[in-house]
Each structure stands twice: as structure tokens, then as C-alpha cells.
Structure prediction request, 215 residues.
Amino acid sequence: MSLAKGSLTVRRYRCQGAPPPDSAARLVELLVRDAFRGRLDDARKTETSGWVTVENLLDTGFSTDRAYHAPYLVFALRTDRKAIPPALLKALIDQRERATGDETGLERLPPGAREEIREEIEEEYLPRILPTVSVVEVCWNLQRDVVSVLSATEKANGRIRKQFSASFSRALVPMDPLDRTLAGPDRAARIERLHVLGGLDLTAPAPSMASDGGE
Prediction:
């Protein structure tokens, strides 16, 4: 579990939309509803995502005492991508095309034949191919309504944002350094104090880069 280990790469988000329900148990129910449902022997070329526990990517046995550590809700998104490697798929199609041409005596196969061969090969090989599996851990501070995603890649974060919105009906908005400093339920009061102290100006124009003097 990366959350319990050393240095981490993290992206943080603010949640938009209605606040989370008072009961962490309700959020756990939503994790269960959208838990990972993919199969290793799936015969389709597909990408499947769903929530799993942070302890084991095969574990979808969510419970409040395992996923909720006040004020944090911790879980992970598993994504399986099943496909025949492109170079191998092309080689298999070319080989079968030549074999079909030899059997039929045709120099050129009819339109659509290559696509039919592709489908036959995928139907034959995909059930025997293990998917490429990725897991990204998520830590949701329910008190501050801030979500930390333990990955810096845009693809992984995009999947998290999409699945999070589908599961919890909340949008994730990236946080900048000021957001991270001011995050929390007392955000407005903090901003007001900084204004009073003269430590924050959200309205001043950017300083000019022009030189004060002549050449």
C-alpha cells in the first residue's frame, strides 16, 4: 500500500457539488456499487475500471472499518486494459491472410475479409491474454473535502476524475498552491484574515515587465 510507504507523487483536488453525506457508510456503499467487475478471461478488447481496496487489487470487500480512517476515506481505482499487442496482431492478421489466399487461390481477398480475420483472431486469443492492470490509490479527506490522487500521470488522473464523478456526483477541481494553503471549511475566514493583514491581493494586476528607465 503506497499510502503507508515513503515519498509519494500526489495530485490534490477540491470537490465541487453538494457536500458528502454525513455517514461514511453511505460513501462505502457507493464504492461497493461501483467496485471493479472485470474478468481476466474476458474475450473482448476492452478497458474496465472500478474501485478496489488499497490492500489488494483483487479485493472489492469494502467496509466502513476498512476504508474509513477518520477523517479519511481510502480506496483505489483498478483499470484493466485487454488487447493483443499491435505488432503481434498485425503479424497474425498478415499470416492468416496469406494462408487464406493460398487456400482459396485468390491473390487479393474481398473487401471486409481483413476485418473478419481480425475479429477471429481477437476471439481466439483475447481469452488467453492477461490484461494490463494499473491501480491508483485515492485518499479523500472528508473534513476538508480534499481528494489526493497518488499518481502524477494525466491518463490516471483523468480516469479518477471520471470515475469519482460517476460514483459520488462530485467534480474534482485541481488545486493550486494557494488552494492547498486555504483548503478547508474555514477557507473564507482565512482569505479575509489575509486581506486584513495585507498578505493577499487577488485583484491586483500582474506587475509590468517593462523597464522603468530608458535605454
